[in-house]
Amino acid sequence: MKKEEMEKYISNVEDFPKKGVVFKDFSPLLEEKFPECLEAMGKDINWDEIECVVGIESRGFILGSALAAKHNKGFILVRKKGKLPPPVSSESYSLEYGEDTLEMKPNSKEKKVLIVDDVLATGGTLKATISLCEKNNYHVQAVAMLINLKFLNNVADEVKNIHSVLNYE
Questions:
Q1: Which of 55, 58, 108, 112 has the fewest CB atoms inside 10 Å of its own CB, making it the most exposed?
Q2: How many CB atoms are closer than 10 A to CB 9?
Q3: Greatest CA span in the chain, whole angstroms?
């Protein structure tokens, strides 16, 4: 499926979740073209290097768990503060409309992972997730996003091996 076709299913929602933010609503894309989204997100990933997929709450759970199942990999949750039972490892970060904290279960066994999320905006969530992974012996091999809002970030300068299906300059 061509990117132009995918974009037909995405709408801009003004002032959501806060005034001044333009939310990319891709729910119709998932409803109509979910298998195609997964295929596009996973096509450039070297799956032989990946042991587990790390999904970022909440829409990263949908995409990440589906990719993990499709490629026979484990799945690791990164959740917002207070959603996982203790013990947890935490990382606070800034995002385009405030601050937040992410958590994951502590891990001591080294594993190679793919991080999956829906939208890369300013990069705060992704950088916090990478930091959490590093603290917990997860070695990030690649990052997969459905949408990269490149006009809001320069994350590619800091994070290597980012794969995004739709890019907005």
A1: 108
A2: 16
A3: 44
Two tokens, residue 112:
């190679």
Question: Is 45 in contact with 63 (CB distance < 8 Å)?
Answer: no
pLDDT of residue 97: 64
Sorted by where each begins, the domain ranges of the chain are: 44-168
**Rounded Cα gap, residues 100 and 102, in angstroms:** 7
Give the strand pairing for 98-104 and 74-80: antiparallel
May I ask the CATH class of domain 44-168?
alpha beta
Confidence class for position 35, pLDDT limits 50, 70, 90: very high
Query: 58-79 burial, b for 16+ CB within 10 Å, e for fewer?
Result: ebbbbbbbbbbeeeebebbbbb
Active site residues: 59, 96
For 92, phi then psi, to 5°, come to: -95, 155
3-state class of 54 per DSSP?
strand
Residue indicated by tokens 């995918």: 6
